[in-house]
Amino acid sequence: MLKAVEIKPDVFWVGGIDWNERNFHGYTTERGSTYNAYLILDEQITLIDTCKRPFTGELIDRISDIVDPASIAYVVSNHVEMDHSGGLPALAAIVPDATIVTGEPKGVRGLRAHYGDGLNLMGVKTGDTLNIGKRTLTFVQTPMVHWPDSMVTYDEYDKILFSNDSFGQHYASSKRFDDEVGLPEVLVQAQKHYANIVMPYGKNVEAALKTLAAYHFDMIAPAHGIIWRTHVPEILDCYRQWSSGEPEEYVLVVYDSMWHTTEAMAVEITEAFMEMGIPARLLDLKVNHISDIMAEVLCARYIAVGSPTLNKTMMPTVAAFLCYMRGLAPAGRVGIPFGSYGWAPMGPNEVYQQLESCKFTLPEAPFTHQWVEDEEGLTRLHDEVIQFVSLFHAKA
Ligand SMILES: Cc1cc2nc3c(=O)[nH]c(=O)nc-3n(C[C@H](O)[C@H](O)[C@H](O)COP(=O)(O)O)c2cc1C
How remote is the CA of residue 314 from the centroid of ligand 1, in Å? Predict the structure, then answer.
């Protein structure tokens, strides 16, 4: 028997726990995930969001633990994406008269595009309210955090912000609250989620945070992971910091290598940063997933990327990383392209071009090394990297 969990009097978590999800549309989810839905018991019983379609049975079972699902009057759909709306068709079959509340116009259009014209939709805009009894829900559209239709729902009576993807983390747990699992563990997943899902929309996050400052809440109930009740100020601070786009004095060295010369260069670049007192992290693309690397990109001012030449181009692992990073658009970074080659430095040159298209500040040319490493070449690389980075480090 699946149980609902009361998170405040008459407000229940009724979501699904995806313990074994390990790849969420290309993003590795080593801790699984949850699809959080929330049931509010008032004169008009209201469900906030649904779940990914395979978890619909779990959702309905948890709702049934509290009420007959046929008694739901409203379903708020904060976000069209199918991990939150996948349960709508099944719910609409049980309660055809329930009104589905969604953002106007993008939510309305999006839900129609996904599920056809049969849903009983009501569009709302920022500041619109819905009275459900002693509670009044207020809707705030948060466009591009992280889709055009995204919105959050504020419950003033309970002081809860139902934030959908914002402040979420892919984290499956038998616990529901931040203080039950420990802040550092949750922040790792919150940072990874922000970096892989929200990073390109920092300006929109800043705007949303400004709007939300007018609302007083002591609980943030996101659509993935644990609920924030003890560490609300901490996660708000993190979102302020991450959305500012202001990186830390920190270098991330990312590379792939066939015969270890590019690897030796990566190690030497890391040593150069350590000598300058700048914290460093070195990640080999053969053993690190790009979605894990992106959590580091979020904070690093310096991003060194190395590839040897393989068949007149860069290595496919490096190309995939650069393609993914360009889409997530970290701004204001210093790039350090490097790599080894046999007879033509196309690999490191293409890394350079890709970092240029990311709008990174770059040296005049990539740091290259023909064939295998030697001490003299590595010492020269070490000194050149220090010389280049000193231009920015002194100013930081
Ligand atoms: C399968 C293969 C294809 C290669 N293709 C090229 C090439 O097109 N152009 C080139 O200049 N070097 C090419 N090389 C040589 C490597 O770029 C060279 O060995 C380099 O030093 C390897 O760097 P690494 O030790 O970081 O892997 C190739 C090497 C291999 C193994």
Answer: 9
Can you spell out the DSSP letters for 52-103?
Answer: -GGGHHHHHHHHHTTS-GGGEEEEEES--SHHHHTTHHHHHHH-TTPEEEEE
> 251-393 domain in CATH 2.30.30.90?
no
Percent of the chain with pLDDT over 90: 98
Q: Please name the fold of domain 5-244.
A: Metallo-beta-lactamase; Chain A (3.60.15)
CB-based contacts of 336, cutoff 8 Å, min separation 6: 251, 269, 302, 303, 304, 305, 362, 363, 367, 385, 388, 389
pLDDT at 396: 57
- In the predicted model, what is the mean pLDDT of residues 135-151? 96
Asked if residue 199 lies in contact with residue 190, where contact means CB atoms within 8 angstroms, the answer is no
Q: What is the pLDDT of residues 236-287, one digit of tens each?
A: 999 999 999 999 999 999 999 999 999 999 999 999 999 999 999 999 999 9
- CA dihedral of residues 288, 177, 165, 22 (deg, nearest 10): 30
Predicted TM-score (pTM) of the model is 0.96
Single out the residue of 217, 353, 367 nearest to residue 306, CA to CA. Answer: 367
Gap between the Cα atoms of 238 and 41, Å rounded: 32
Is it true that 5-244 and 251-393 share their CATH fold? no
Q: Which of 392, 354, 375 lies closest to 254, judged by CA? A: 354
Cβ of 308 below 6 Å from ligand 1? yes
pLDDT band at 395 (very low <50, low <70, confident <90, very high): low
- CB of 101 within 8 A of CB of 124? yes
- Domain assignments of the chain as residue spans, ordered by start: 5-244, 251-393
Mutate to test the pocket of ligand 1, among 258, 313, 343 (most ligand atoms within 8 A of CB): 258
Q: What's the distance, CA 37 to chain centroid?
A: 19
Q: How confident is the model at residue 5 (pLDDT cuts 50, 70, 90)?
A: very high
Using most ligand atoms within 8 A of CB, pick from 256, 312, 318, 341 the residue to mutate for ligand 1.
341
- What the block records as the tokens of 356 is 């240029």
Going by C-alpha positions, the residue among 320, 339, 36, 321 that lies closest to residue 164 is 36
> Which atom of ligand 1 is found nearest the CA of 312?
8
Cβ–ligand 1 contact at 261 (below 6 Å): yes
Residue whose Cα lies nearest atom 28 of ligand 1: it is 310
